[in-house]
Design a protein that fits this description.
This protein is an alpha+beta fold and 148 residues long. Helices cover 16% and strands 37% of the residues. The protein has a single domain (15-143), classed as Hotdog Thioesterase (Thiol Ester Dehydrase, Chain A, Roll). The chain has a five-stranded antiparallel sheet with strand order 1-3-4-5-2.
Length: 148
């Protein structure tokens, strides 16, 4: 990734460190034979958190002819989740490079942090299918939300 190293952000398990939020529903079909929410669903929760702002039509962060692609996902399971209920997905910007950015996320049920994740996103040109520089409006939006 093309980023400079910065000091470590605050602990990923604290609700207070996230500024971007979305919610999702725990569905009966998300459970496995042990009765808890299946591990694969946690990645879907993180996707919901990313998509809610990355593809927000009002923000238009990506610009024409481009799309976001996830190139790395690291997910740590911290507690089990049980049906029914809802979860809150917090997202924060950890770093911004010229062609990529790194997000930190957490899945909470109430105050319980059930999972944390980090991912690297790139912006891809739809025609060439190659990474392209982040446009100024996207860089500015991301940099304004850098975790401090």
């Amino acid at each position: 990734m093309d980023e400079a190293r910065s000091p470590a952000p605050p602990a990923a398990t604290l609700r207070a460190v996230y500024s971007i939020w979305t919610s999702d529903t725990l569905r009966y079909g998300d459970t496995d034979r042990q009765g808890h929410v299946n591990n694969a669903v946690f990645a879907t929760f993180c996707e919901s958190g990313r998509v809610s702002f990355l593809y927000d039509e009002k923000l238009d962060l990506r610009g024409p002819g481009t799309n976001f692609v996830i190139v790395r996902l690291e997910l740590d399971f911290r507690a089990e989740l049980l049906y029914p209920g809802t979860v809150d997905i917090g997202t924060r910007v950890l770093s911004v490079g010229s062609r990529s950015f790194r997000l930190g996320q957490a899945v909470f049920k109430g105050e319980l942090c059930a999972a944390t994740a980090e991912c690297v996103m790139v912006l891809v040109d739809d025609a060439t299918r190659r990474s392209t520089p982040l446009p100024p409006q996207l860089r500015a939006w991301l940099e304004a939300r850098l975790a401090r």
